[in-house]
Write a sequence for this structure.
């Protein structure tokens, strides 16, 4: 699949935003959130800003952005529509929560409730995003039960990294916040490893033989001529291919940046000796982690083979 | 079907399932290729909404191919020329100025009238994809030049000539397989052919019926892909395969002797007297009748008599001491020569001996064990009534895979002989003639242009083209040297019945046999895809005589409708209309659109008015003729004879009394067909009938037409044949022997010494196979691969690339090789490779496949374009990734003599003889095709091509802006 | 409504015969020609005369090789929307622009509702969704909805353009829900199959496999009885004219 930057930006950015919201809302609900208004202001601006930026960028690649509202209509069948509805629904409680935390400066019951609801809706939104991909039987790399969990965990992990940073900057270094990334990143790493293992060992999926119905006697089937000599929309959108060697290299970069580095930096920031530069370390962890997750996302697309490529020379998809 | 758009749940969808399609529908004839299908053109607000096949039309019966379906984009082409152009800078570099028609025609008239006053031969008038040869050839005769031909010489004259000299008809478009009844269909070297749609329909019919379809072809694409059996033959060796099959049949006696005896010259006696001039001639009686052995007396007797019983073998003394043998015996002996054994053939053809034997067996099985009997009474040439017709359900078809080789004439003849051995001609299940064929073998027309037949200010003494039957018919001077600029009908190519357009530029450039003044061309992209050795051709077109500084070819006039590669090389351009903007005539005098059931012809008429200053070329030719005062074009008092232009000519011109270009609705009342006085309402009648006329022969006239009295009488009435005598098919081709005897020193007309051996070898009256001429070069082994091209079904030669739809399908062409051959050369799919021939080299991208004979590489024909031509972007894939094999193919044979790279009998261009070698290009060389030429500038008047097309948006019920901004 | 109809009254679709398709592209171009002025007009072409010409086409023809050596084949393979029974292209659509008709099963895009998110093109395994970047909406084969019911066309022309024009008779149109229809009988007789059935779209269109090759007399004796008498045996024979 063509790794379109707008979509990568959208999922990474809104993932981080919604991730922060999920954590902040949950902590509020269980009463472990600092009521520091500055902290609240920064967190909510970052979370809602990132989520909104992501959402807006996702409408930019539409053929008709002015009709984007129509996407809210088909939540009964469409994960994309559900994602839209959930995302939109997240904002009112999130804003109320933000008001309470950052402006009113108190996390009283209604605001805490709003925070909890926002956290749940944010989680639903990210789950829907994951499901958009996971539900596509045409793309075997996505039609995989780890896809949505990975989306969720990576959203949480990136949210946690940014929260940890903001917590340290504002001096709200509650270990619940500053240690959280390590657990989430570890979970993400494990899930992603399992996912990649599974992908690498996957020998199933449609083949050029099942796509064409030819070669059912076991004969090989080879593309002789594409319909047209120049690339078409389907090939540009879905025909992206990345060499395996290249992909493996990128996976290592993604793992290093998304998991190993932020975990190390977060761990380092926890050392008493590092206290003076803890915030800097947390920032580096967040930035590195975000870039790493973007790389992971890029690979998520680039490594995914669409079934239609079987009509354009692929043997298996 | 019920209205589908209004069911409850989707009522809001607001679909108009019954939109009005058009406000006007016109019928005409497609000209996206030469198949000439009938079309219905739907127009809305004067724009073309849709072009569809005319379901009533005999050729296509409603279907339309990819090209025909893309007619809208031809009409919409940004490469359409807009106004007459005159060259104002160096030739080939493209500076032109727009001029008015009057000036253009004045200039042409001046050049041409000077020529006509001095020496009409100095005009070479050659027309390419011309479909009005009945008119253009006539015009050339009126002008007085013998230097006229259309494209047949580089196209398929081998097929036409071999057929006409052998069976009085031919493959090509002059006959068709009996798709409804054939049980075994054997096709040689066809990728697409002119009968594009009929062949596809036919193959589908065959498959539906469970008939067996065998395709002999080095490449397995298109038709070969759906064949039941693909025979991957080595290019140029089909003749050997066919002769080996014939040998098997003859050896096994699996031959239709009765048929041969009745319908062919198999029983005719051939004189065996090597010392005499008439050696190898048919023995004749005092009245000129051929002789055969009368089986009852054992003596020679008139072979044409219906009551004799003939022998097919044996020997008889026709004069004291002079023996003669039936032609069949000679044929049989020829086929039994060791050279034609399946084992020897296998080595050369790549088809195993077992396979060859199986093919022979299957052919005989289908022909003889599955004979068809149709209870259709008919009357033979001798007036005998028969209760039924017998069918041999073996049909064959062959085209350029056979014809584009220098042994194509003989190979094609061998195929016809194979058909005859099986009795499979014009009978149920076999190849069937399309009227006006069969014609006498060969037709009686002789070429004009001999000394004394060309004179200033006088028409040519006959037709420029024809069918020589002895050396006296050649167009040569007293020394035997060529008198035509293309050297057709010279000793180099005696039976060049369609001329040799491919040699004109080279010969005119060399002044061999003489310099010319004006080269006048129509519809032929001769600076690109229809020339051999394209790079050299480009040089010749721009070469100047160092002494005078003049171009070697002083004037070039060209009519094209589009900005082709050739435009840059003309001095004067006469822009033509598109096929939807003019009158055209698909005449029985030309290449007909008839079917086996009966004759047909058709017209085109203007459906759209040109939006630019262009004129139909035929109108222009008539106008020029009037300005020149050509006899047939002006009345005795000097007035235009056809003031209404070509439409007027189509209706009112008579070749012979009552015979004109169109056969339908003749006579004052429009009720005569075939013969009749001109009818002023004729074109209207055509339009009312879907723009075609067709006549179905009564069933008793549909079979054995070479010997069907009722048919032949009718054909005589139509002017197709001069007499109703039986057309005896020729397994033994006596005219060839006459040339051969001349080469042996007999007769009044002798070939120049250097050509004698060649004539003696190739003018064999019996079928034969020899390796393609250029394969005899000493270095052939250095070029181990064969390079051939194929017609892509969705493109027509060069002119499809300006078509926005078709060029998406095929915008560049790869070089296809067998996977194993490529592996041996270290070449992978997609690699850039060099292909080198003895005289040229090209670079392109390799594509590997399995369905190709291992010694063969191939590509799609005429996809590559020169940068800037056709108003395409300079970086268009046609120019950057397209390869033209023509650069590899020399116009001359190896050796010092300027002998054309053509068939020695017919002068047919030997495109597919080419041998090459292949190597991988270096990494630095990858990425761009070679050779490349300077970018051709866009001719004046043409707008830059648009960067987006939204054709049809006006036809949408709601306007585009509304649709685009709807929230 | 992107919910699928529970069932459709008919299942109109195409049956494509891989045995006779010669890969001529007639159906593809005729489809383009009809549809560029039809229901989804225009079928935009970008850079039509340049380096990267790319247009909207509803029907595209591929060619494949299968097997090697004597058993090898070249198969031409036309590909257009299969008007699936359970098409994900419909259910993923967030706007309801993509829908399946209850009356006849045809899958269409309502261009007025489409936001151009392209998700349906990801959901279609068969590459049948064609995005028109200029119009910003998804387009696709309409099964010639503006022909098959068109009362302005003569009855015989009320079939999809690609079917009407195919010179090789390789395309058939009809109701595949009706087991007695000509197309259903053809599918039954020739072993028509689904493309990628494992993906669960349940395509309506069916493909007919290449037929086993006809062989008229596979093992007839090499030696014809007359062989010995072949040429020489003629010596005493006479034939009438
Ligand atoms: N390598 C190789 N070369 C080949 C062949 C091959 O198989 N292999 N095949 C050969 C054969 S058989 C042939 S017939 C030739 C064909 O080659 P050409 O005779 O050159 O035919 P085209 O390229 O179709 O086009 C000729 C010109 O006609 C112009 N034209 C199109 N429509 C009109 C019109 O309405 N009016 C006018 N005035 N002009 C028009 C086109 O713009 C084009 O410039 O190529 C030959 N060359
Ligand atoms: N779509 C389309 N239709 C056309 C044309 C076009 O350009 N496009 N051009 C028209 C013209 S001008 C012509 S002349 C006709 C020509 O129509 P075809 O005769 O079909 O012409 P080619 O494509 O040159 O076909 C040559 C075929 O012969 C095969 N071949 C080559 N060498 C040999 C050989 O030695 N033996 C055998 N058995 N096969 C061999 C090639 O692989 C190829 O399949 O088509 C006409 N129809
Ligand atoms: S075969 Fe195609 S291009 Fe040729 S005349 Fe027929 S429809 Fe037109
Ligand atoms: S028109 Fe028919 S034969 Fe040609 S590509 Fe389409 S389906 Fe195949
Ligand atoms: S083929 Fe693709 S676009 Fe057509 S209905 Fe099936 S899934 Fe949808
Ligand atoms: S592109 Fe249009 S039709 Fe396709 S899913 Fe998006 S809104 Fe629906
Ligand atoms: S049914 Fe109509 S829209 Fe669909 S491929 Fe055929 S011609 Fe095109
Ligand atoms: Mo040709």
């Amino acid at each position: 699949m063509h790794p379109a930057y707008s979509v990568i930006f959208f999922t990474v950015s809104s993932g981080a935003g919604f991730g922060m919201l999920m954590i902040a809302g949950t902590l509020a609900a269980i009463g472990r959130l600092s009521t520091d208004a500055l902290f609240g202001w920064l967190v909510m601006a970052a979370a809602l800003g990132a989520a909104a930026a992501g959402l807006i960028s996702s409408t930019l690649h539409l053929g008709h952005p002015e009709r984007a509202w129509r996407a809210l209509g088909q939540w009964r069948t469409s994960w994309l529509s559900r994602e839209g509805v959930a995302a939109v629904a997240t904002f009112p409680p999130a804003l109320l929560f933000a008001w309470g935390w950052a402006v009113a400066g108190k996390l009283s019951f209604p605001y805490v409730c709003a925070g909890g609801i926002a956290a749940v809706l944010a989680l639903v939104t990210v789950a829907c995003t994951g499901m958009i991909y996971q539900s596509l039987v045409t793309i075997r790399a996505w039609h995989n039960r780890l896809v949505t969990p990975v989306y969720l965990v990576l959203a949480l992990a990136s949210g946690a990294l940014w929260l940890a940073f903001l917590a340290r900057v504002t001096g709200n270094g509650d270990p619940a916040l500053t240690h959280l990334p390590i657990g989430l990143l570890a979970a993400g790493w494990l899930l992603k490893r399992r996912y990649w293992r599974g992908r690498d060992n996957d020998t199933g999926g449609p083949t050029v033989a099942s796509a064409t119905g030819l070669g059912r006697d076991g004969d090989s089937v080879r593309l002789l001529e594409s319909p047209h000599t120049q690339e078409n929309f389907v090939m540009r959108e879905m025909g992206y291919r990345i060499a395996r060697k290249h992909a493996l290299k990128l996976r290592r970069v993604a793992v290093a940046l998304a998991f190993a580095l932020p975990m190390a930096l977060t761990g380092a920031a926890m050392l008493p000796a590092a206290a003076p530069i803890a915030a800097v370390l947390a920032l580096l962890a967040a930035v590195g982690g975000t870039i790493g997750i973007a790389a992971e996302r890029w690979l998520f697309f680039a490594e995914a083979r669409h079934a239609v490529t079987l009509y354009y020379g692929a043997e298996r998809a | 079907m019920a209205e589908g758009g209004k069911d409850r749940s989707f009522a809001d969808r607001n679909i108009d399932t019954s939109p009005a399609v058009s406000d006007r529908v016109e019928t005409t004839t497609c000209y996206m290729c030469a198949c000439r299908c009938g079309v219905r053109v739907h127009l809305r607000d004067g724009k073309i909404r849709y072009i569809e096949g005319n379901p009533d039309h005999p050729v296509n019966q409603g279907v339309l191919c990819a090209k025909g379906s893309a007619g809208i984009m031809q009409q919409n082409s940004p490469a359409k020329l807009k106004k007459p152009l005159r060259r104002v800078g160096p030739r080939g570099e493209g500076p032109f100025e727009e001029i008015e028609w009057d000036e253009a025609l004045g200039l042409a008239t001046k050049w041409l009238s000077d020529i006509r006053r001095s020496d009409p031969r100095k005009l070479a008038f050659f027309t390419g994809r011309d479909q009005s040869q009945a008119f253009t050839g006539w015009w050339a005769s009126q002008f007085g030049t013998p230097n006229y031909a259309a494209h047949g010489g580089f196209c398929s004259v081998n097929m036409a000539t071999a057929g006409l000299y052998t069976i009085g008809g031919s493959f090509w478009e002059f006959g068709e397989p009996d798709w409804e009844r054939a049980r075994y269909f054997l096709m040689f070297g066809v990728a697409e052919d002119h009968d594009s749609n009929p062949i596809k329909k036919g193959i589908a019919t065959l498959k539906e019926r469970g008939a067996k379809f065998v395709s002999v072809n080095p490449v397995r694409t298109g038709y070969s892909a759906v064949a039941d059996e693909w025979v991957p033959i080595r290019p140029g060796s089909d003749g050997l395969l066919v002769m080996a099959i014939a040998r098997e049949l003859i050896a096994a006696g699996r031959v239709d002797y009765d048929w041969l005896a009745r319908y062919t010259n198999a029983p005719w006696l051939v004189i065996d007297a090597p010392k005499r001039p008439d050696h190898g001639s048919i023995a004749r009686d005092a009245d000129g009748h051929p002789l055969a052995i009368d089986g009852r007396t054992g003596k020679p007797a008139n072979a044409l008599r219906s009551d004799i019983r003939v022998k097919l073998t044996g020997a008889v003394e026709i004069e004291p001491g002079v023996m003669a043998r039936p032609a069949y015996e000679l044929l049989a002996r020829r086929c039994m020569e060791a050279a034609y054994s399946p084992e020897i053939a296998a080595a050369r053809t790549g088809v195993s001996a077992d396979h060859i034997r199986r093919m022979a067996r299957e052919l005989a099985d289908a022909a003889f064990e599955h004979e068809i009997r149709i209870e259709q009474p008919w009357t033979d040439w001798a007036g005998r009534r028969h209760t039924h017709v017998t069918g041999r359900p073996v049909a064959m078809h062959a085209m350029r895979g056979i014809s584009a080789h220098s042994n194509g004439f003989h190979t094609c003849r061998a195929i016809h002989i194979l058909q005859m051995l099986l009795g499979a001609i014009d009978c149920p299940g076999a190849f069937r003639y399309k009227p006006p064929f069969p014609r006498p073998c060969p037709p009686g027309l002789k070429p004009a242009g001999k000394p004394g037949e060309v004179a200033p200010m006088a028409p040519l003494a006959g037709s420029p083209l024809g069918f020589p039957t002895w050396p006296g018919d050649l167009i040569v001077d007293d020394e035997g040297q060529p008198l035509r600029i293309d050297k057709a009908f010279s000793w180099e190519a005696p039976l060049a019945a369609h001329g040799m357009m491919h040699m004109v530029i080279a010969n005119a450039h060399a002044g061999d046999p003489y310099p010319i003044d004006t080269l006048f061309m129509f519809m032929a992209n001769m600076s690109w895809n229809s020339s051999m050795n394209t790079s050299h051709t480009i040089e010749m077109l721009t070469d100047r005589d160092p002494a005078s500084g003049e171009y070697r070819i002083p004037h070039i006039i060209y009519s094209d409708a589009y900005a082709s590669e050739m435009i840059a090389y003309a001095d004067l351009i006469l822009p033509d209309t598109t096929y939807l903007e003019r009158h055209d005539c698909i005449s029985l005098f030309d290449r007909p659109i008839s079917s086996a059931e009966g004759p047909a012809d058709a017209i085109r008429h203007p459906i759209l008015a040109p939006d630019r200053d262009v004129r139909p070329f035929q109108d222009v030719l008539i106008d020029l003729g009037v300005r020149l005062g050509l006899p047939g074009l002006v009345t005795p008092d000097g007035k235009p004879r056809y003031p209404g232009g070509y439409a007027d000519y189509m209706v009112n011109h008579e070749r012979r009394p009552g015979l004109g270009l169109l056969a339908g609705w003749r006579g004052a009342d429009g009720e005569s067909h075939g013969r009749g006085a001109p009818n002023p309402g004729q074109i209207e009648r055509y339009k009312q009938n879907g723009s075609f006329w067709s006549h179905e022969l009564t069933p008793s006239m549909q079979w054995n037409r070479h010997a069907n009295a009722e048919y032949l009488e009718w054909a005589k009435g139509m002017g197709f044949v001069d007499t109703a005598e039986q057309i005896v098919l020729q397994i033994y081709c006596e005219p060839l022997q006459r040339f051969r005897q001349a080469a042996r020193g007999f007769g009044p007309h002798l070939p120049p010494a250097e050509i004698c051996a060649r004539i003696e070898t190739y003018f064999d009256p019996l079928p034969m196979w020899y390796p393609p001429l250029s394969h005899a070069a000493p270095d052939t082994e250095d070029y181990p691969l064969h390079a051939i091209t194929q017609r892509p079904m969705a493109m027509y030669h060069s002119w499809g690339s300006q078509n926005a739809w078709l060029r998406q399908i095929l915008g560049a062409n790869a070089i296809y090789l067998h996977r194993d051959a490529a592996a041996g050369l270290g070449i992978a799919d997609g690699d850039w490779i060099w292909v080198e021939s003895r005289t040229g080299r090209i670079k392109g991208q390799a594509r590997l496949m399995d369905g190709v004979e291992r010694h063969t590489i191939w590509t799609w024909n005429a996809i590559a374009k020169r940068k800037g031509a056709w108003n395409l972007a300079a970086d268009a894939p046609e120019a950057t990734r397209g390869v033209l094999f023509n650069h590899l193919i020399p116009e001359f044979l190896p050796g010092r003599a300027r002998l054309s790279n053509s068939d020695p009998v017919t002068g047919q261009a030997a495109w597919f003889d080419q041998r090459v070698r292949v190597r991988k290009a270096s990494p630095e060389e990858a990425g761009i095709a070679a050779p490349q030429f300077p970018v051709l500038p866009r001719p004046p008047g043409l707008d830059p091509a648009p960067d987006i097309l939204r054709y049809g948006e006006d036809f949408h019920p709601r306007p585009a802006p509304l649709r685009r901004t709807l929230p | 409504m992107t919910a699928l109809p529970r069932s459709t009254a008919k299942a109109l679709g195409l049956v494509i015969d891989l045995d006779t398709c010669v890969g001529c592209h007639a159906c593809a171009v005729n489809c383009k020609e009809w549809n560029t002025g039809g229901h989804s007009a225009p079928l935009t072409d970008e850079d039509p005369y340049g380096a990267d010409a790319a247009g909207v086409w509803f029907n595209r023809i591929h060619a494949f090789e299968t097997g090697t050596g004597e058993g090898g084949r070249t198969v031409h393979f036309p590909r257009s929307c299969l008007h699936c029974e359970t098409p994900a292209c419909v259910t993923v659509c967030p706007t309801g622009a993509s829908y399946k008709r209850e009356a006849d099963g045809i899958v269409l895009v309502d261009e007025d509702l489409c936001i151009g998110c392209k998700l349906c093109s990801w959901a279609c395994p068969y590459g049948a969704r064609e995005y028109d970047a200029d119009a910003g909406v998804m387009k696709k084969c309409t099964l010639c909805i503006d022909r098959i019911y068109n009362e302005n066309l003569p009855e015989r022309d009320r079939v999809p353009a690609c079917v009407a024009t195919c010179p090789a008779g390789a395309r058939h149109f009809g109701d595949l829900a009706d087991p007695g229809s000509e197309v259903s009988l053809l599918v039954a007789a020739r072993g028509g199959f689904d493309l990628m059935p494992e993906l669960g779209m349940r395509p309506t269109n069916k493909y007919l496999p290449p037929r086993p090759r006809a062989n008229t007399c596979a093992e007839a004796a090499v030696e014809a009885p007359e062989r010995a008498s072949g040429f020489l045996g003629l010596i005493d024979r006479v034939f009438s004219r």
